[in-house]
Q: What sequence folds into this?
């Protein structure tokens, strides 16, 4: 459950809410708009951050909006936003700032190394969807490659309607097109090679409403699924790719945790994932689960992806109680 923590907060204002560093120059800082190109989302409806302001010491204030309805990152019940939208917003903000503020060229290839999100699901209310989300962002561990960017970590706090609703952090690596071609020569040469698309598990078993949004297929043993990769999906594969995007694996982890725990809706209060290698499109990827804790109020599930005998990712997801006590006033 999300708990107060001021260790990474930019500052506290007089109301006790987190906020960006105080502006001592006496002038309003310039606002920059998030474009679909910066967020790597061709469709404007899929872009959640809208604008940002830069402050000293690589700190930013981003304004975002979470729609009450979305073709993929929509609600999983009739009251709450899907906490996965927090991770997607973090990802989009990280790439936007990498391009616009840290000189990553437009043709940079990004790789997600790890992602952690902590939420208060009880505060992610659809009734407050019209309210803007303010995101305090700190960029750290910034490593340069010449004049460009090699990698950085982004740490964020998400506020809406006067409440802290989520925290998140993620590390992103950047690769030039030339280096990427060398690294992925075999896969790029075989681009178009795919394993046959298997039939999905029933959508309600993994917390989805539509079969086309299911990223798991049945396997031959309990607690294990086959990753189902539909490269025509308009949100999960919004642009051509030679590997499985990290957010697809993150969603696979959540769907697997939902199925393994039997808890629906599965509204994660804690999510963490680390990636060890690319997930390829031409080889089966197996998703294994282990239910670590299960009681009346909370369940934690460990999820692992493996391909050709090697680890692809590991994730841990904790589902909050069905009616969690709000951690903030």
A:
């Amino acid at each position: 459950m999300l708990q107060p923590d001021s260790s990474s907060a930019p500052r506290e204002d007089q109301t006790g809410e987190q906020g960006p560093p105080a502006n001592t120059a006496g002038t309003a800082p310039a606002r920059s708009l998030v474009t679909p190109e910066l967020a790597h989302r061709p469709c404007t409806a899929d872009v959640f951050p809208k604008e940002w302001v830069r402050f000293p010491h690589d700190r930013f204030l981003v304004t975002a909006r979470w729609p009450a309805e979305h073709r993929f990152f929509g609600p999983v019940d009739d009251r709450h936003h899907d906490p996965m939208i927090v991770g997607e917003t973090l990802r989009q903000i990280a790439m936007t700032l990498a391009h616009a503020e840290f000189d990553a060229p437009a043709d940079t290839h990004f790789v997600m190394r790890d992602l952690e999100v902590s939420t208060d699901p009880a505060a992610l209310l659809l009734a407050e969807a019209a309210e803007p989300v303010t995101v305090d962002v700190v960029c750290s561990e910034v490593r340069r490659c010449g004049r460009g960017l090699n990698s950085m970590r982004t740490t964020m706090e998400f506020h809406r309607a006067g409440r802290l609703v989520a925290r998140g952090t993620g590390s992103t690596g950047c690769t030039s097109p030339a280096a990427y071609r060398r690294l992925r020569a075999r896969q790029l040469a075989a681009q178009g090679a795919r394993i046959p698309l298997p039939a999905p598990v029933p959508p309600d078993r993994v917390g989805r409403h539509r079969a086309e949004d299911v990223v798991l297929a049945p396997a031959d043993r309990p607690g294990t699924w086959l990753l189902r990769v539909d490269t025509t999906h308009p949100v999960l594969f919004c642009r051509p790719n030679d590997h499985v995007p990290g957010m697809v694996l993150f969603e696979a982890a959540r769907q697997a945790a939902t199925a393994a725990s039997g808890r629906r809706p599965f509204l994660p209060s804690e999510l963490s994932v680390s990636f060890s290698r690319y997930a390829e499109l031409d080889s089966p990827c197996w998703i294994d689960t282990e239910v670590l804790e299960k009681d009346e109020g909370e369940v934690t599930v460990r999820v692992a992806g493996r391909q050709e005998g090697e680890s692809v990712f590991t994730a841990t997801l904790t589902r909050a109680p069905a009616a969690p006590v709000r951690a903030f006033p």
